[in-house]
Amino acid sequence: MSEVVALGKAGTAIRKANAEGRAGLVGYLPAGYPSYDGGIDAIKALVDGGCDVLEIGLPYSDPVMDGPAIQRAAEAALAGGFRVKDVLRTVEAVTAYTDVPVLVMTYWNPIERYGVDRWATDFAGVGGAGLITPDLIPEEGAEWIAAADKNELDKVFLVAPSSTDARIRSTTAACRGFVYATAVMGVTGVRSAASDLAAPLVARTKATTELPVGVGIGVSNADQAAALAAFTDAVIVGSALVKQLLDGAGPAGVRSLTESLAEGVRREPSAAAGR
Amino acid sequence: MSNTLPDQLGHFGRFGGRFMPEALIAPLDELTQAWQSAMADPVFTGEFDRMLREWAGVPSLLYDATRLSEVAGARILLKREDLNHTGAHKVRNALGQALLTKRMGKPRVIAETGAGQHGVATATACAYLDLECVVYMGEVDTERQSLNVARMKLLGAEVIPVTSGSRTLKDAINEALRDWVASVDKTHYLLGTAAGAHPFPAMVRDFVRGIGDEARAQSLELLGKLPDAAVAAVGGGSNAIGLFAAFIPDEDVKLYGIEPGGDGFETGRHAATITAGQVGVLHGARSFLLQDEDGQTIESHSISAGLDYPGVGPEHSWLAETKRATYRPVTDADAMESFKLLAKTEGIIPAIESAHAVAGALEIAKELGPDATILVNLSGRGDKDMDTASTWFGLIDGEAGRE
Fold first, then answer.
1. Fewest Cβ atoms nearer than 10 Å: which of A1, A180, B152, B167?
2. Chosen domain end from B204, B232, B251
């Protein structure tokens, strides 16, 4: 498979940012929070604030990888009657608003229940770019990999500090778009201290692939984003953005934090030389 | 029928596997390796057997329940796991995994618990083997089962009430997994049933399979032949797989898993996962699962806290799909009738979980006829259930019961 195809939509957007001498910014928000329309407005604020790639969370009853902020938002969305088909409607509304690639981050069971082929077709039909699958490893993902390939969707699998080099190699080989490096051992959530696990994981991952590597690590401000941008292709921010909504700051709060993060990823032009 | 499942990646046919965050895959590989090397090491298995014998009261007795048999109209044999230390089969799994934790050199154990039985068994094994122990328990359950919380604390465990989601067993598992992903280098997650990601379903089965291995030998000694049927209650499925494992190759022995039928299967308020027949992924494995049309987990309902779980171990799903075992529901009401019947006919107060198996055996006896011999796993004792029974039957003055 050629590099052009493997970059997919999300990888192409990240490489475009890298070509400007900066890291890409990937912003996460769950669909359906604080409401169906409110969720769409908040995601549009990610676009307006300067995200290069969007990650829309599919609310799920048992989010074992998520910390309190994302759990609360998902519970509230589900309690409000939010359905899987509403995620597709959300994606459709966002892709009508922007060309920024839209990934959905989802635990596996809702997709399996929807029907993997049917999901891939319907999701591609509303302009979705691909899936990030936190509890699906490539070994269990044959059906998704086939459906994604057929519909030219990005397949973003995760690597972790505990992953062996052999696992990183086989996982990145199955990715299209970018590789998601979870650079802390733990659930999602804002962290004040930088993890010393991030740089070695990025280096080990880059040794196996030409794909961009994005790091999710609990970043909440521009300084942390700038520090990460020094050695990674994309900075992924989730919980801090969700907290803006939980705290009632609304789309304006999301936009303001996104603008600040977007400034952060532009702060280290020298780091781009290594890309 | 093959008895060599699961495959290398933990699959029982299309069930099982590993639907887990990548961060836990390498630790699960390490655990698989440690478990397989331990089971091949006579020093480990010898120590496990010695501790089971000297400390846990295993092997448990096989009891010829003659008065119950008269009522049932067939011969009923009870595997007396209720007589084990801590009062249930669960001590086998807790001790096995705790001993494996020591062997892996990890100082800390975490566990989930619903009613508290697995939490107590884990806290007990950790006290015995000098391991730090943290138990996650839904806040709703810590309130319903305060006596078990006190037991765990007395044994030196820390009990953390879980306030997320439905604040019950499935959320306690979620929270334990969240702890584990952040602490896995020095912590073992001592899962309480034969479910979850590989290697847990196979590993837990192997630690509890003594139930069936012993019962098979005891049946041969008592009867000169194997029983016609083996019956056990199925929540997550550890006591049932522990009984079934030895008999899977014996194709003449019928296997019956009794699921918690709650208010009645047709009411929708039940925990009869296999009977409901929807396949999905929860807590690391593909199996049958109670879920809505979006794949969101549905809350289960059973009078028995130990059976009140919306998933089931993947090997049971495979046994059901291949028709090697039959799964059927028994209602709360029928289970409670059997609870009382066993108390009055045999002087044994069973766990409500085990009362489901007895109720199932009574139905199966009618189907198999008077010449049949039916082996029932009496997986636990009922002391823990006396509050529930008192309310159900109105045994305490001033309470209106059902009789």
1. A1
2. B204
